[in-house]
Amino acid sequence: MKKKIIAANFKMNKTNEDIRKYFAVFLDLINGLKDKISAGDSDLDSELIFAPPFTSLCETLNIIEPYLDFIKLSSQNVYFEKSGAHTGEVSIDMIKSCGCDYAIIGHSERRNIFRESDELIGKKIGAVYNDGRIIPILCVGENLEIRKRNGQEKFVENQLAVGLNSVKGKSVSSLIVAYEPVWAIGTGMPIKADDGEAMHGFIYDYIKSGFSIGELRVIYGGSVTEANIEELMGKPHIDGVLVGGASLDPQSFYNIFKKGGRL
Ligand code: PEP
Q1: Using CB atoms within 10 A as the burial measure, which of 26, 78, 135, 147 is most buried?
Q2: pLDDT by residue (tens digit) across 47-96?
Q3: CA distance linking residue 180 with residue 108, whole number of Å
Q4: What pLDDT score does 33 carry?
């Protein structure tokens, strides 16, 4: 069965000490669940993913080690080269050695603040997908100006076309696409669930036209909270969520997981 995803993106927040405090609370909240899952006695159909900063990946791995059945680690970025003179960058081997199963690629903050181009993001997606050890989470999404002139489909189609250009073969079965309209990120203005469903359906149809999709998942990000998670997760093409601001507090992220993760 294809699992839904509830993912936390901590962005540039939390030192290792903050991480230890966070998980002391979060793991306490989910402790009952761990026993249920081990006993095969839970209808959990979701995977929890945490994307802390690079500096806390290994610390987080040590803490969540007993929970790796259903809590996974993601990096917030990765570079496409294997090694060498790329100061400040981090390779697939490096994130794998800190326990990552996922890598967020092409987040709108990488695109807008650090000027990452569609082409660079396509190289990263190709490198990670073709390597096969890490599942890439390809972020796409339009800004407000594009949405106002109803250009979101064309814009996202282009991000997907270039983003998937270096994937070898015709299957994207394990890929995750995160549809994150820029105007909804960190603004407290989430997309209306019906509009989200329409874009997710469009993304499915577009990818299906060029690839066999297998267990492709399309998740939504942008001002997700415990107030809107159930409506979003109720839509057939919304396979999960990527949560920024509301994931920083363990109780609030636990509430999102509990409502959205079908516990
Ligand atoms: C994000 O940056 O990926 C995000 C979804 O942020 P927020 O939940 O704060 O809108």
Answers
A1: 78
A2: 999 999 999 999 999 999 999 988 999 999 999 999 999 999 999 999 99
A3: 8
A4: 73
Q: Going by CA atoms, what residue is nearest to atom 4 of ligand 1?
A: 244
Cβ–Cβ under 8 Å, residues 52 and 10:
yes
Q: What CA–CA distance (Å, rounded) separates 113 from 249?
A: 25
Helix (H), strand (E) at residue 177: strand 176-179
What pLDDT was estimated at residue 262?
63
What is the C-alpha to C-alpha distance for residues 59 and 107, in angstroms, rounded to an integer? Answer: 23
Which of 254, 185, 257 lies closest to 22 in space, CA to CA? 254
What is the pLDDT of the chain when averaged over all its residues? 95
pLDDT at residue 38 is higher than 80: no
Q: Which of 230, 237, 226 is nearest to 196 (CA)?
A: 237
How many Å lie between the centroid of ligand 1 and the Cα of residue 83?
Answer: 30
Closest CA to 220 of 54, 29, 26, 9: 9
For 186-232, write each residue's pLDDT tens digit: 999 999 999 999 999 999 999 999 999 999 999 999 999 999 999 99
Q: Which residues are catalytic?
A: 107, 180
- What average pLDDT does this structure show over 175-189? 97
| Number of the ligand 1 atom closest to the C-alpha atom of 180 | 5
Between 16-38 and 57-64, two packed helices, what is the crossing angle to 10 degrees?
A: 30
Q: What is the domain partition of the chain in residue ranges?
A: 4-260
Residue 68: CB atoms within 10 Å: 12
